[in-house]
Amino acid sequence: MSDDQDDYKARVKAATEKYLTKNDPNKVHRKNEEPERELQKEVIKWLNSIGWDVDSIDSKAQFSEGQGRYISQNAKPGISDVVGNDPNGIAVYIEMKAPGRRSSLRHNQRLFLLRKIKTNCFAIVADSKEFISTAYKRWSLDYADRAKRNAILLSLLPPEKTERDQGSLFD
């Protein structure tokens, strides 16, 4: 056999072994959990049961098997996950995060919430039902003092990330 054939066989063997290592049928693949989505469903059910009228807004593109392509949603990026009103008719915007991940608020989500707070809406980032309940109770204590209510909501927003917090590609 020539050296070219030996080299070819070695490359094919190496490629086959690499493929089998990556695609081992006996390997247990971890299912990607969606704790934020599960919490969002739980929160919507709970809020609707206590007299709020809220729904979920999905601003991500979704794959349509019928059309064989991704269909973009009409919702603008940054809009909160849960939108509706409280029992008093006040607009409600809740950006849901997985438990312990409130600080993962993106810049466009923060800007959206700030705009809503400035127009006297109840707008927060939450990672639990308890956080929503506590925030709403604090916010609704001073119903007539809009400036104080807005200050409470602003204080509940996680600090904005700086470039340094986000990390550099070359650090």
Q: Calculate Rg over CA atoms.
A: 24 Å
User: What proportion of the residues is helical, as a percent range?
Assistant: 40-55%
How much of the sequence lies in strands comes to 5-15%
Largest sheet: 4 strands, mixed
Shape: elongated
> What value does the average pLDDT take?
84
Series of H and E elements = HHEEEEEHEHHH
Alpha-beta classification? alpha+beta
Secondary structure: number of strands: 6
Question: So how many helices?
Answer: 6
Question: What do these coordinates show?
Answer:
With 171 residues, the chain is α+β, with helices and mostly antiparallel strands. Helix content is 43%, strand content 15%. The chain has a 4-stranded mixed sheet with strand order 1-4-5-6, with helices on both faces. It has a two-stranded antiparallel sheet with strand order 2-3. The longest helix is centred in the first third of the chain and has 20 residues. The termini are far apart.
Note the main attributes of this structure.
alpha+beta; four-stranded mixed sheet
Q: Quick summary of this structure?
A:
The protein is of the alpha+beta class and 171 residues long.
Summarize the helices and strands and which ones pair or pack.
Layout lengths: L2 H20 L12 H15 L3 E4 L5 E3 L4 E3 L10 E4 L5 E6 L10 H12 L3 E5 L2 H12 L5 H11 L6 H4 L5
Helix pairs in contact: 4-5
